[in-house]
Amino acid sequence: MDQTPFWENIWGLLEERLFPVPSGPDLFNQYKDNDPEYDLPDGSRIRRENLKNYLMSFKKRPEILLVGEAAGPWGCRFSGVPFTSEYQLQKRELPFKGQRSSRHEPPYKESSGSILWGTLLPEFPRFFLWNAVPLHPHKEGRPLTIRTPGPQEIMDFSPLLKELWKAIGARRVIAVGRKAQSALEAIEVPHGYVRHPSQSGAPEFREDIKKVFSAVKGNPVSKKLKSR
């Protein structure tokens, strides 16, 4: 029987399928490239190391895979970890180590990441966070903006998302937001849905995500979560 920790298989997958992807004029690969205006000289290495620390914090397979939309400019773009800011890493608020990769002072802080971890930290490591588009989509010429990833970008990363889902083997998959829902539908992964915590969605997100974790403990999934 293969005794390799499951996170090592995921790391190998990312090294092969994600880290080498070239950045484009409106899509930035934070694991491969640095912007000298915003990043420390070894920023991409720091972000890969942060992501590896996150993966290594799982001593067993998580029960729930939470899939967001894309890496945001104040969160994963500089932390390397989905729904996580370098501010949280530097403050040691999370159950894994990490460093800042930006030149910004104070470190960047993301509201969605603060809401999600503020709600779910007691449940860690029962859940695994990822994004349908794991890189940072931005408006061309404006590297710290955020834009909705297009259908082709979601399609480009769909094979990676499906392989990641298989490697994790979670009991339940939840789309956080509509774009994530579309990505999971495209690869025919059974899933539920919760409101994204951004744009005044925090109260509904908190309510729905608690139902998800209650369901995994043995209660039936609510019709509301299934049908959205």
Key attributes of the depicted protein:
alpha/beta; 11% strand; globular; disordered C terminus; 9 helices; 4-stranded parallel sheet; two-stranded antiparallel ribbon; Uracil-DNA Glycosylase, subunit E; 228 residues
Question: SSE layout and pairings?
Answer:
Blueprint: H1 6-17, E1 27-28, H2 43-56, E2 64-70, H3 76-79, H4 86-90, H5 111-120, E3 127-133, E4 136-137, H6 151-168, E5 172-176, H7 178-186, E6 192-194, H8 202-216, H9 223-227
Parallel strand pairs: 2-3, 2-5, 5-6
Antiparallel strand pairs: 1-4
Helix pairs in contact: 1-6, 5-8, 6-7
Q: How would you characterize this protein structure?
A:
This protein has 228 residues and is α/β, with parallel strands linked by helices. The protein has one domain: Uracil-DNA glycosylase-like domain (Uracil-DNA Glycosylase, subunit E). Helix content is 40%, strand content 11%. The protein has helices at 6-17, 43-56, 76-79, 86-90, 111-120, 151-168, 178-186, 202-216, 223-227, and strands at residues 27-28, 64-70, 127-133, 136-137, 172-176, 192-194. The strands form 2 sheets. A 4-stranded parallel sheet has the order 3-2-5-6, sandwiched between helices. A two-stranded antiparallel sheet has the order 1-4. Strand 5, helix 7 (178-186) and strand 6 form a beta-alpha-beta unit. Helix 1 (6-17) packs antiparallel against helix 6 (151-168). The radius of gyration is 17 Å and the shape is globular. It starts with 5 loop residues before the first helix and ends with a helix. The relative contact order is 0.15.
